[in-house]
């Protein structure tokens, strides 16, 4: 009986099926992962595993509780980065920068969040044919049969893909083309970089995005280029901040823009202009510098004069149409800008609008016999005028194959679904920069029954290699390794990136061409056309980007650095334009932000309906702003997010659309906004000064230390204490004492630290409805403040009525300040919060009963209360509500439950791990070994963490810096987090308006 029952149980046991139905535990998952995904047991420099290893036999390179790191490259339709992937017991749980790489070595919010997409339960799990579940054998037979038939006809076989700068994949396509000669590869990026690449090809003779080295630059003038955002394919913030140290030759930054961006927020001088006026100003400056004409605009005259004075130490950026890019490139050539590199270009973007338009013509003329769409969703991202037509044309094509990770609007109209794995499950390579190659390697075997696009090509083209891994390795060993700085493929895998030795300089057209300069002698902006209606500037948010990761709850809940909203997009409009049209934002009684809605009209046709209006300080008069990436109809989160699809108005791949009208409608929208106040309300929270004052005036002027009024008179905070001061001093000197420093001059507000904290500390996602009630769970927030003029002592500085025209903006990351005299500790009735000897404010979650006294007594308001169980709760149907999504959880950090307070711990699990390793190896800890999740992920190194008991540590130097101050220090709580005040460089610049 027992034996039969046991056999019956074993016959019915299907751990994989149970896993995806949410019936399994983490331990079951690890048993399954340990047996079936043996590739994760290898270090980064070893090849693939071809046989299973039972987890009961400990793999050589895995020790339970000890993380492994793999060098790889994150790439999707919009982002690319050289990364290290942290794994625990065979599952990736964290993404960090690969500093071995010289380029793309920062991890943005999107790059880090791509990890969560690996554990998305809505990913496609099996191939399908005409809507029915199928097998790879059946799919391959069907596709090969159709390809052979098409090769006898005169119809083209098209591979439509986003930019994919892969050396091996391009070679593989060429091999595929030998078998099927009418094959074409067409690049389609939802957000096109083609205009920049066309301009580069025209001016420099190279179809690549120029690399700007800011090391020798002392002046940046940017014309609507959000270069701290997504303007350049590579993150420029790290280069920018290096030249923003408050020294005599500190770089000046002038930004002319229509939308308020993080680049404009960080500028020394920001001019608010609508796009057509920006282009006109750029033209006048070009004509002054290159042709000697006097600008009509006074601000253009001042800027041109400054550029002429600074000469080659200046650099000009621009965005918009091809003409704008050409003008900026020509100015940089004329002044011989040191920033513009002659022999280095970025090749990660390959957009080509002309080739894509030719593809659309072929589609319309029914010249396409086979269409393979890889990693893009054109039915969603094409403009209003053509997307329906393209949809109908695709349905007529004999062979249509979707190569995507999830169901989307495009895959619905395709006959074959050949699901591809996540990049963390894939092999590959990229060629993103001149003479630099990177590798992609799997950190976990395919969770679902998916197959790489390249593996499919190997099968369909019937080449001799068994799989893509063999093809990739053979290609590298023949074409790249012999010319590189490594000796083997395994060594290249270990580092993740290689450089080519003794490369020949790029032969390009860097000399000035007078014909191109004369092209812009005359007016190019139609002044009559631009005076009517609004101009719309389309942009990307640091969270959603092009929308490829739309179904990622981490990114949806990441607050926008400027508007501080989550879970939506909206139409940004000037306060003055909104007043004219009767459009308002207002705070409701429950503490949420409400706003009117409008219809967006172009050429008398309504393109987008019921779009909420957000009144944005600093928005240029006559201009509007709208973010890409929202409005998708597929995926679980589409039921929560009610954003609008900006691609519908992205005509001719142009980010600026003119002749726009808006019409007020009756609908009221409730925003999910985490910050409703705009100013510091008279408090000196973010200290800021001018470079001239900083260099020439005493510290007491620009960093005054506040005193406290007592019965003994005015005293400094450290002179007052309710504790035994000798006891505290003695305690500080024993062992480690951790501090954190944040340089406000380096913080650009990008939010990478917020996602790093989520990933490291198992911070739950609470959803749009809870955010509306101010119940966000972010352990780290980045406060944004506006102020209206340059004089810190001015009474109008914090007046909200004066911030709308063109405010200055500052960012301030706030987390638990780990006060030595913490007010939260004295009021906790159960002793759940206490102070550790290493300077961290500790939380014993099991003791907390949720009185919230600590939150009420915290002056920084950084403690978060769990109103619900966010795990296994259908109301919060995010990654913690299913067995697969929970695999991202960090086992070193406990998951909190309902009624418990939680907050930043200064990543105590990471500090203790470092201490433990050093003890085991019987050595002294190096300063750079101590890192928090936020400090290691910060692209500008604005956050510094370390041990102040080590006098040689960087943190010790930071807190002794004259710019250092502590937030609300005058109340006597003695925080262990310090800030360095912000400095803007306005020297030699007259006041511009």
What this model shows, in words?
- The protein has 993 residues and is an alpha/beta fold.
- α10 packs across α11 (298-310) and α10 (275-291) runs parallel beside α12.
In short:
The protein is α/β, with parallel strands linked by helices and 993 residues long.
| DSSP strand tally | 41
Rounded mean pLDDT score: 85
Q: State the end-to-end CA separation.
A: 89 Å
Figure out the total of helices: 32
Shape: globular
Strand order, largest beta sheet: 5-4-16-15-14-6-7
Question: How is the secondary structure organized here?
Answer:
Blueprint: H1 2-12, H2 15-20, H3 26-36, E1 68-75, E2 80-88, E3 91-97, H4 109-118, E4 128-129, E5 132-133, H5 136-150, E6 156-161, H6 167-179, E7 183-187, H7 194-204, E8 209-212, E9 219-223, H8 237-242, E10 252-257, H9 262-265, E11 269-272, H10 275-291, H11 298-310, E12 314-318, H12 322-334, E13 340-346, H13 353-364, E14 368-374, H14 378-381, H15 387-396, E15 399-403, E16 416-417, E17 428-433, E18 436-440, H16 453-461, H17 468-479, H18 489-495, E19 497-499, H19 514-518, H20 527-530, E20 534-539, H21 553-556, E21 565-566, E22 571-573, H22 575-581, E23 585-587, E24 593-602, E25 605-615, E26 623-627, E27 656-673, E28 688-690, H23 691-696, H24 699-702, E29 708-710, E30 713-715, H25 725-733, E31 738-743, H26 752-761, H27 768-772, E32 781-787, E33 808-814, H28 823-827, E34 833-835, E35 841-843, H29 853-857, E36 864-865, E37 901-902, H30 908-921, H31 933-937, E38 943-947, H32 954-960, E39 964-965, E40 977-980, E41 982-984
Parallel strand pairs: 6-7, 6-14, 9-10, 9-12, 10-11, 14-15, 15-16, 20-26, 22-25, 28-41, 31-40
Antiparallel strand pairs: 1-2, 2-3, 4-5, 4-16, 8-13, 17-18, 18-19, 20-27, 21-27, 22-26, 23-24, 24-25, 24-27, 29-30, 31-38, 32-33, 34-35, 36-37, 39-40
Helix pairs in contact: 4-26, 6-16, 7-12, 10-11, 10-12
